[in-house]
Amino acid sequence: MSNPQANPQLDELLREGIQAARAGDKTLARDLLEQVVEQDQHNEKAWFWLAAVVDSIDEKRICLGNVIVINPGNQRAQRLLDQLEGQEGKSSFSSGGMTGGVSRRMVRLAIGLGAAALVALVALLIVVLAGSGDNKQDKPADSSPVAGAAETEEVAIVPDDTQPADTVQATRRATFPPTATETSPPTALPPTWTPVPSPTPRDTSPATPLASPPVELGGKIIMRAGQVVGDEDNQPIIVISPDGTNPLMIAPEIERGHTPIFSPDGSQFAYIKFATGTREVILQINNLEGTAPKWSSVRWGGVPILSKQDMPAWSPDGAWIAFTAVGPGAEWPDLYRVSMLGEDGNPEALERLTEDDTIERWPAFSPDGQLIVYAADLTPLGEDITELRLYHVEDSQITDLTTNGASLIEAAPDWSPDGQHIVFHAQEAGATESDIYWMPANGASPAEKIIDSDASDIQPRFSPDGQYIVFSSDRTGNWDVFVYKIATQVLYQVTTNPRIDIANDWGP
After folding, report:
1. φ, ψ for residue 9, nearest 5 deg
2. What is the rounded distance in angstroms from the CA atom of residue 451 to the CA atom of residue 491?
3. Which class is domain 8-135+149-173?
4. 241 by DSSP, 3-state: which?
5. pLDDT tens track for 421-464
6. Superfamily (CATH) of domain 220-507
7. Most buried among 160, 246, 314, 502, by the most CB within 10 A?
């Protein structure tokens, strides 16, 4: 339950926080959801989703405790809280008078809820104090996330109201040895070939940084990387070689952005620029030297008709860019495409592709340009479901590619160069992290997990020859870029910087 007074801005923050959580961006999700509960301490849904993205068990207890304070009848929250209470010896207490697993902001938010939450927080601190003294001396000297091989259990917080309570269960995690590195150079194969991995995925979570990819890999990877100032999604745009060398910043730091893509010939790139002055997000196109910007406006024909432009995708012939945006009178993002052949800012070059009550995200053209795969979020229809759909360019028909309901929340699809497979990241029901899946583009068989770890793996993209997949992961405790060879399941680490690196395309 939450404040009965309607607050569209707060509802938007909550919606964006939930979407970030589903996409595996726990840092952004936490920031957005904490903003919600700061303004509405009785927002039950926000507290429940916040429990899914905070880091420590103690903070999860606070969030779930607040859910129960707000709604004592929430049995799912009570069940999850009971599971957390059963995990002994996982809290710590620091000499500074604050639980090691509870941030000061979280304590302030909990106290802001009222007397009942304050009582619950005091009880939590008592439990933590009692447990820390018994377990502190047993803690191994090396307590880094990758040290040791002991298994731990972590309760999966699943705020999905559609999931039956009896499906909520503890998940077991373990540390695995590093994946063996490959010594032989890759074999050159035609771009129409898609390798087939072993049907059984393996956890490739490394204990130490992996080897860099072979220098023979061709093409270039475009990503957002570097200092994050204020906005989690917007950073300088950088191009690197697939082996992690030759970084080139192609968008100045003052022109931060995200979701960059290459043109088909690799001579240009498009991205969503964050305009620091107006704080608008804008579809921007430029050359790799950053000297010829175009479409740098949210206006077509001088009219501000679109907002929240995002997730561009270039057609194979270079004639179109598809993207998502909220149009006039619309509440949710739809699919649009704009012609690259017309005059900059010409409203006749803009075409709306979808107009419905679902949230469209992550468009990607098929290699022949006849289909656009995208993720359709059915939340506005009252269903916590996301499916992959196909938009047929010739006749504007829309068909479902996946029909797995709430069991899998899909995002960021990409086509293999031969058009036979679609790769994407997804979050299973009951999980708090995303893994990498693929499936036949014709939907002939269900999605198969091919990259699995105990962290979030996101935004997979095929290499130009179809032999590799680039993706980003926080498996090292920091967002870095990785490359995966499909045929051998060998995993390479491309970046090891102490910053957020999110790759989004692999071009020629």
Report:
1. -65, -40
2. 9
3. mainly alpha
4. coil
5. 999 999 998 888 999 999 999 999 999 999 998 899 999 999 99
6. TolB, C-terminal domain (2.120.10.30)
7. 314
